[in-house]
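Re: folding output
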Amino acid sequence: MNYETVQKLAAEGNAEAQCYLAHMYEEGEGESGDLKAAFIWYRCAADQGNAAAQWRLGRMYEEGKGITSDPVAALGWYRLAADQGWADAYVSLGRMYQTGKGVAVDLNEAVRWYEWAVHAGDARGVYFMLALGDELGNAEAQASLGFFAYGGQGVPQDYAQAAVWFEKSAEQGVAGAQFMLGSLYRDGAGVEQNFAKAAFWFRRSAEQGFARAQNWLGKMYADGSGVKQDHAAAAHWFSKSAEQGNAEGQNWLGLMYADGNGVGQDYVTAAKWYRAAARQGNADAQFNLGVIYRDGLGVEKDLVEAQKWFDLSIPPAAQADVQSRLTESAKASETALTAIRRPGFFAWVWPLWTSSTM
């Protein structure tokens, strides 16, 4: 688009044309460079909500291009652009918080903005966080770098590198990093599998109130993985997790009450926790709640309600086949019923339900 056309559209109030015209003045395209004119047109477009213009206007204020430098004003315009999802603004805000321009230095807030940049597809966020995590030792930046390496965001997926960053952050007490490091040791991803180390880091995270770590520490006590098997300790940690709304922890706590492991057997309480998890969409809990209603354990027997939860727990394609299996299971021994109520039931029975479509 030539200069005359852009100028005409800009004069008519077209925000994109105003921003483009401002850019032409700033860079000396079509006409000789004119920073004051660039500022005026960026402001016109920015006032209409054009995110690119808001970011560029912020940059002019930050750098003092054609106007007196004003970091506080720059910060304001960057925020407006960021509110619209402009990735460049995320990076700019990260730098402002990192360097203390227009705002007090806040490295954790800088990390937050760099994270947004990476999520928006701007890998510069990783570059700036490397400085924060490696050179300055910022724990939040190290945790974020671990997550990026773990998920392959902005960098190639690399579990070993993720473990390095998670360990640096975990040692500084970041609960999320402690949980992820425990998960890597549990799965043997990027590190040699070590259940004792997994339990160690899950505990460090769980003691800070991290619900997912509390749930996994409960599982390790229930199974005796990396720790001595202790059903009472398992129930304790499941309870901590469940009370924070973690669906897996709620389902596991329901199982502990249903089976009387680590707590007194109490089907009413089991039903309560199954229901809490089931309402969050946990498939195991939905199935378990169906069993509770089918057998009248802690609730009034209600086959219609049971069927509702069975249906919710199973994909439609598998429902016809599982119905016959549920009928068979109703005739099974209590030992068999206890077995199918355990988490992981779907892990071994799922292929049977879906074999016809595999």
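--- second protein (sequence, then structure) ---
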Amino acid sequence: MNAHDGYKTFSPAALLNMTAVPFLIDGVIPLHGLVEIVGPSGSFKSFYALHVAADVASRDDDPKNVLYVAAEGFFGIGQRLAAWQSQYRDIPEERFRLINVAPKLLVAADVDRVIATVRREHSQVIIVDTLARTMGGDENSTKDMTAYTDACGRISAETGALVIVVHHFGWNGERQRGSSVLFAAADAELTVNRSGDDLTVKITKGKDFQDGGNHHFTAKNVPYVAPDGVSATSLVLVPSDGLKAAFRAMSRYQDLLNVLETLGKLGATSTEWQKATDMPKRTFQRAIKYLHGTNEIVKEGSLYKVNQEKGATSAN
């Protein structure tokens, strides 16, 4: 369609026949448009944004390609994702991509580069963390915030991707910082509040769906093994309103040890052990690396065994 064709129009009947709002996360985050995640400093809102990104990129049901604009804290994200995968599941590399620069969305050339990146990576969800680092203007200025919101709208319109922006609360900790233009334009707003290790994510705006719902998480230190073989931990959000799933994930290592014990006292090769589980190969290899690094298992030749001495020490 060119300019001479005018705009496409819809009849009331056509609108009524359109489906309900499609969701990225059912009842929480719509699939299209602009969403903001807001909260006070230290509320773990970036942890929540990363959790959403990892979850939708790795889920079995309708996974999405995610582009994460890590404009701050880039070098700590690898640790967080390693722990997230240890807690949950592997994230396919082709579905989760990150950039470590802070494009200024008030600069047309930077917006062009973001759009080009989204198209190249076939991204369906873009998470911008944070607004402050990617604005290049005055958050309190209605003019600048309008231009920023328009840039997000342009990215979404030209690529079809959902744009999620992480934004800070103001000094009083009660509302988002700066002009209210972004809130007015957003299709949804999620407000993150923290009390100790517990987080509440509240739907404080749903333009075309019901707002007001709360979702609860607990931040837990989860072990993982770094590429150099050293064991470490990082915080991971676990839904506290879905404890069965959380407990299943937390028991992954013990389940592996139980399977290994059932394979006999002589031990088992990694191939035999992996076949006896329903764990994906990459996840299994990462788990073995962790169990070996924490002396839960020993390797004799090509055979892995449960470290009975570790168990005896623990029992005492």
